[in-house]
Amino acid sequence: MIASLKLQIPVDLSNEIIVSLTNKTMDNMMWEILTKEEKNQVLLKLLVQVSRADEHLDKREFAYLIHVCHQLSIDPEMIRTFAKAPADVKEIMPQSEEERMQILYHLLFAMKADEIVHAEEEKMLYELAFRLGFSESMIRDFIQIMKARPLDRIPVDALLDIIRKYHN
Fold first, then answer.
1. Is residue 46 within 8 Å of 107, Cβ to Cβ?
2. Is the pLDDT of residue 23 over 60?
3. Is 8 left (phi over 0), alpha (psi -120 to 50) or beta?
4. CA 89 → CA 1, 71, 73, 160, 166, distances in Å?
């Protein structure tokens, strides 16, 4: 006869687990009800946070943000609005792999837009990537590639190889 094993989880820990799971479920539900425009604004807000993490918004970073605004049909004035807001990595994040990868891709290029990867930008990228569900080692590999080459010479194949390495 196999004896049953009863796990006793402390109440504080079980409440923390329940809250964590509830928050993830709520984030997923919330992302799904956002409009396309609201999702694009979340992306822009995250890009602004990475771009100003070093407390300086370089003209090349600003140009990248303007480019993203035009691509996503967002009023570029939103850049100013988000730049004035306090940094906050508690945005609702998508759950689908495709949307998370798209956001990560943009974050990497925002970090490298001024050709300098600052420690503060790296830290912000790690925080946001963790919230997106990516591993520290995967992000470290991406950052190494971004640091090693000029922005216009970043090999797409190398970025895809990292994705394959961690998701296959």
1. yes
2. no
3. beta
4. 51, 23, 23, 26, 24
pLDDT tens, 59-114?
999 999 999 999 999 999 999 999 988 877 677 889 899 999 999 999 999 999 99
Check residue 21 and give its pLDDT: 45
Report how far residue 51's alpha carbon sits from residue 64's, in angstroms, rounded to the nearest whole number. 10
Taking alpha carbons only, the member of 80, 55, 86, 56 closest to residue 66 is: 80
What is the number of alpha carbons within 13 Å of residue 122 lying toward its C-beta? Answer: 16
Q: What is the 3-state secondary structure (H, E, C) of the chain?
A: CCCCCCCCCCHHHHHHHHHHHHHHHHHHHHHHHCCHHHHHHHHHHHHHHHHCCCCCCCHHHHHHHHHHHHHHCCCCHHHHHHHHCCCCCCCCCCCCHHHHHHHHHHHHHHHHCCCCCCHHHHHHHHHHHHHHCCCHHHHHHHHHHHHHCCHHHCCHHHHHHHHHHHHC
Token code pair at residue 99: 């949307």
